[in-house]
Records
---
Amino acid sequence: MLDGADTLDVGGTVDEKEIENVEAADTEQVYELGYLLSPSLSEESVLEEVKHIHSCITERSGTVVGEGHPKFVQLAYRMEKTVAHKKQVFETAFFGWIRYAASPAHAEDIARLLKDKEHLVRFLLVKSALDTPLPSRTPRAVAPKRKPEVPQTLDEAALERELEGLLKE
């Protein structure tokens, strides 16, 4: 459950004051929690779910040091989750992430709590480091557009000479 993963390219913020507090605690590890929330939630409900995730972390002595607010995204593939004995299929979701510091035992407790969340489609909890840069969007290099070549206009005599030259070869 707690293993490495690629990062998804979304923006976020880091609280520098909280980072200083985390660096002072020797027993804490830094974790990143990436999560997908159900697309059926309203904007207000998404914010409530995020607050609940925050409270799960802080109630277990965790300290939030960074966050990427949930954004509505198209999923790369369909995901299924069974809720109340009903299979639900998701092709879109709200993606967000939270970087926090907690003891390893508390991180396991947080993961157990999140497994039972009805509106949480999926989540991934990975160990991180405070000096790991936050993901950011970088623009892709775009090749300059080529101008279409303008065909030469030849008069009839020049066209005849070109044809004769080609036929002789």
---
Amino acid sequence: MATETTKVTATTAVVVAEPASIVIHRGGCHCRRVRFEVDAPAALTVQDCNCSLCRMSGFWHLIVPASRFRLLSGADDLVEYTFNTGVAKHRFCRVCGIKSFYIPRSNPEGVDINARCLDDGTVESLTIEPFDGQNWESNAGSLAHLSL
């Protein structure tokens, strides 16, 4: 009777996480003169900053690389506000006053979209993380990866 020999070798299973599904979100200001598109996951994680400006305006931060943001209309309707270091470029619609996006000091190579200004229909879920902007200098580094 023949004997079968089975050679068992160790294998390594490599599990590669699927990238988050990226969708095109659209949004803009209240009067709809300023309109944009942004490529971002359908399941969003945003920051709720407690600095004076963000707290007063209710801005929920969705920071993305500039290459994922497209201003579709309203460039001529935007006015800019800067303060302190002047690095952040806060852009408001001159007609309705809404700041739907801006260039953040923490990520000047990116764009920070107000998740509250995204149109309905493409956001599957929204996770809100607190961000201590009252102590900005100590905490800004934690946002650096968001615009890479």
---
Amino acid sequence: MTAMTLTCPDAVETVLPGAPRSASEARALVRSELGASTLTEAAVLAMSELATNAIAYSRSGLPGETFGVTVQCVTDGVVIRVRDGGARTAAKLADPEPGAEHGRGLLIVAALAADWGTEAVAMGQVTWCRIERDRA
């Protein structure tokens, strides 16, 4: 694997409308901040899954609501954080039936990431993952 230089500053954050089109904006933020690399593609996929979950399964997806995204470069890769308006239950890995259309997002994130988790915050929760250069 060739060495890569990340182009992002320590961290960049933005708040997006809780609408399906915002998942695309979240992916574009990752691409813009990280540049072209295999790490970027893994981070884009993770962001897509986390942003989609915020829109589909939390209060952030209600009309007029928002969610926040953070891309943070760290020594060994990148940390992706998505803050949403909170859901009735904590994020967890699902066990979808074969052929099911939903339920694999966090499984994908877990496969890409060295670590991931959720944290309760005021007015919601943050779901995050850390993707290492060597795993991407």
